[in-house]
Amino acid sequence: MTVSKGNTEVAIRYVAIGDSFTEGVGDDRPDGSVRGWADLVAQGLADATGQPVLYANLAIRGRLLRPIIAEQLGPALALGPTLISFNGGGNDMLRPGTDMPWVVDQTQHALQQILDADVEPLLIAGANPTIGLPRGDRVQAKGDQLTAAAVDIAHRMGVRMCDNWSDPVLARREYWSLDRLHLAPVGHQRVASNVLRALGFAHPADWVIDAAPVGAPSRRDQLRYTREHVLPWIGRRLTGRSSGDGRTAKHPEFVRVDPR
Q1: Beta strands 160-163 and 3-4, pairing class
Q2: Maximum separation of any 2 CA atoms in the chain, in Å
């Protein structure tokens, strides 16, 4: 992403809100920071239009839908964007007893707030990680239900939607990082390509959105995955901690993304 600090008025002012999916976890930089599909979308918009884009990303890993709306939506609107991408509910789905009607109702309410502010919303359905998750069938059922409801909301409200959940390519193992819950870099590039297409643009020609197939994990792989990822996740749930505790948004104010 080509970034400069100038905040000169530009045609596209894009703000992304959500959780780790939107923050970019899994698309790690050498310095330990993350990039992710939203960063790539900002660059793709600049490249496609030949004009700079102002971009902010308020997403924080681990966030449930309630704090995404309560803590991110107001500040996002206060920036004066022309476009807000909205994704939430993924972490809610990972917990037992998810109140799906509440998630659907709150999603619709958030989109209405964006529309009422005269800003274009883009509803984002996250990718489907369930091929590698323990009890993935339960998450799959919730994701199918939420995505179907999101498609209906987008149709009724007349807003754009990018449905990554139903992309069969993104459901393959090679598009996911070692924790099996966050996209690998190629997965983030494919999501960014899907998002740009939903907005009416092609992705840059140098992006890699296809990956070679990988086989199913071995027993040793499964044991390592459980030790390094599943058990720490369970530990956080039992102690009421989150991977996002103490973290702040990576781009709370606009940065200027120049075309390459």
Answers
A1: unpaired
A2: 55
Domains belonging to the chain, first-starting first, are 3-257 (3.40.50.1110)
Q: How far apart are CA 187 and CA 172, in angstroms?
A: 10
Q: Which of 192, 163, 174 is nearest to 1 (CA)?
A: 192
172-219 pLDDT, tens digit each: 999 998 887 999 999 999 999 999 999 999 999 999 888 888 878 778
Give, as one character, the DSSP assignment of residue 72: I
What contacts 24+ positions apart, CB below 8 Å, involve 187-190? 187/26, 187/127, 188/24, 188/26, 188/27, 188/35, 188/36, 188/37, 188/40, 189/37, 189/40
Distances in whole angstroms, Cα of residue 102 to Cα of each of 21, 121, 149, 221:
21, 20, 12, 37
pTM of the model: 0.89
Give the model's pLDDT for residue 6. 46
How far apart CA 242 and CA 235 sit, in angstroms, is: 10
Q: How far apart are CA 176 and CA 189, in angstroms?
A: 12
- Is pLDDT above 80 for 225? no
Q: CA-CA distance, 18 to 12, in Å (whole number)?
A: 20
- Cα–Cα distance measured from residue 22 to residue 166, given in angstroms and rounded to the nearest whole number: 17
Q: How many CB atoms lie within 10 A of CB 176?
A: 25
Reduced to 3 states (helix: H, G, I; strand: E, B; else coil), residue 129 is coil
Q: Which residues sit opposite 122 in a β-bridge?
A: 85, 160
Q: Which residues of 70-91 are buried (b: 16+ CB within 10 A; e: fewer)?
A: eebbeebbebebebbbbbbbbb
